[in-house]
# Entry
Amino acid sequence: MFKDEPLKLWILEWEIFLREFIQLEGCRDAMLYQTCQGLPGYLNEAVIRCRDCEGLQLYCQGCTVVQHIAMPLHVMEIWMGTHFQHISLRNLGHPPGVICCNPAPAFNDNFIVLEINGIHSVALNFCNCTTVQTHNIQLLHTRWYPSTTTNPQMAATFHLLDHFQMYTFKSKGSTFEYYQSLLHLTDNTGTHQPKDHYELFLRMSHQHHHLTSLLQAGCSHDPSGILSMKEGELVILCPACPQPGRNLPQDWENAPPNVKWLYGLFHFSHPKKYTY
# Structure
């Protein structure tokens, strides 16, 4: 009846969709989606879910930590009996794996990371061995862009910076509005908003965009380094503009008048505004 009117077809299942949304906010049929052998009432009870992973599976504390060794910025929720409550991975224990024998905790054991799903506070240990790289280089190896070059206490993921760059290119939105969206993704109630890091995010995004431009222009392969660059070298030449030796035929200057206009560049200017 409404074959060519998808919105009217959707209205017929309006309440079904809403019911599913409500069930997603609760524990739903947890036992149907429980994939680990957690024991009810014990520390390893399957009551934790990840909002960034696909599916509705509930896991115990140990399984959650093991599965997120390489995903420390995922948002966790724990079932409290009547509702899900936000919980950080840093409160679930340390993941198994190779641990540095001489770790150096971040400042106050509280490192801030900006990711596309919000602002995270993580427990971070830098490697402090004798052959180790500096802290900012260690962060770059993890694809986290440091806020400073000395003793960084905050970073933004490359994922976030790439997303922000595309956001500004296509939507022309402001940096402030984008950062405000991160704040609301972290806490939309306004009761536990993190400390303001807007100025740091502004600087990191500016530096990241500049480095990306240098990389795409091939400047990283220049033996003489970045300082040898000349003004205008990052400009991308227009492929449609006539440029001798590139897209113009040989002896184009001596072309007959009836075709010479093909090799010219037309400039359009606004008419002058006269004042009386």
